[in-house]
Amino acid sequence: MTYKDKTLCKIRTITTFISLDKNKATWKDEIKKASQFCLNLTSKFSVKGYTVQSIRIVTNPFGEYLNTQNLESARTDLSYLSALLTESSDLGMRVRFAIGEARSKEEIELLPELIKEFGDLCNVCVNVKLDEHGVLDNSLIEHCVKAVQHISVITPRGEGNFNFTVNFNCDPLIPYFPASYHHKELGNRFVIGLETPDLLVDALKECNQTPHKNHNERFKDYYEGMSGALQHHISAINHIIETENCDKSYAFSGFDSSAAPSKDCASMTQLYTLMGVEYFGAAGTVEVSSLLTKVFKSIKDVDLVGFSGLMLALTEDTGLAEGSIDAQFDIRSLLTYSAVCGIGLDTVPIPGNTPAEKISALMRDTGTMAYRLNKPLTVRLFPVPGLKAGDLTAFESDDLCNCAVLAVP
Questions:
Q1: Concatenated DSSP letters of 10-79
Q2: What residue ranges define each of the domains in the chain, with the CATH number in brackets?
């Protein structure tokens, strides 16, 4: 069985969740301990044949430990954190960092300038909840939209919005940035996230070597093939954690079973064509999206946390990026697919002059679906200055694919 090949399943991240407080003298030890824990576990995975792509640290809400009295005080504290992370990265692997959630208008207003200066150190989210009437907090959404628009203007090509997302119905302990956040009452934790599109493609190709009598039989085989392949590796990685992890100062909270695509692996769109959909966005896309979600939710004998669903990150997936250029789907389609599967509207470029009211409404639509369907959904938009719907982006970040700007109707 080729799916047992460990190169097909990479560990996208070992993410630790820690708590910091106002006593800056303690920060160095907390960050060093978390970094060393991740590095030690990385080494154990490597010995067993699994590649770890990144190690990450997520904190409690930054207002609980940064001096947020004003921009300068917050900047001073982040500069100190940056120096500590540089020291930790010197241990052998770059440490990515998320400062937790912003919880007030004043904290949100700090974000554009902090993201502009500190970039990937300043991964941050805002959690929008329902009020006592079951209506989304639109005032908080409007503050977030102002931040998104400001970030788009003051960072090159608007790429700073890569570090900011708005969460709806998202619990703590998501291992992926920037939706990650932590609450100190949970204690020190860690979560494993995977990169598995190559694995799922391999499983589907093997399934397609067997003749099928009908559609239902074919989809049954697809489900069993992908679920079995994913279960095999998650069980193997979980066994390594149970037998090799001697450091119990970080409680293992489980896996985010999402496929987590990137520029460097198979596109999620390839899964759709292998299952008979003409192209991502064509008739049948919702059905396949639902099947994939069922696969990610099927994992047994471990705890599933975070999204554990289908990720459709437009500018992080080469196939999705190409599909946008060919006008195979629009922003409303992406939101529809999120209703049965995914993480929401993630890394979606929109016209730079999109009115704030339209962006707010789009966020409310996403949030309404999140709470109505009880799914964790997020919105991470890139208003691109000077571009209109249909124009091609010219992002320079190593993390991003270039694609067509989508209209917000």
A1: EEEEEEEEE---S-GGGHHHHHHHHHHHHHHHHHHHHHTT--B--EEEEES-GGGTS--SSHHHHHHHHH
A2: 1-316 (3.20.70.20)
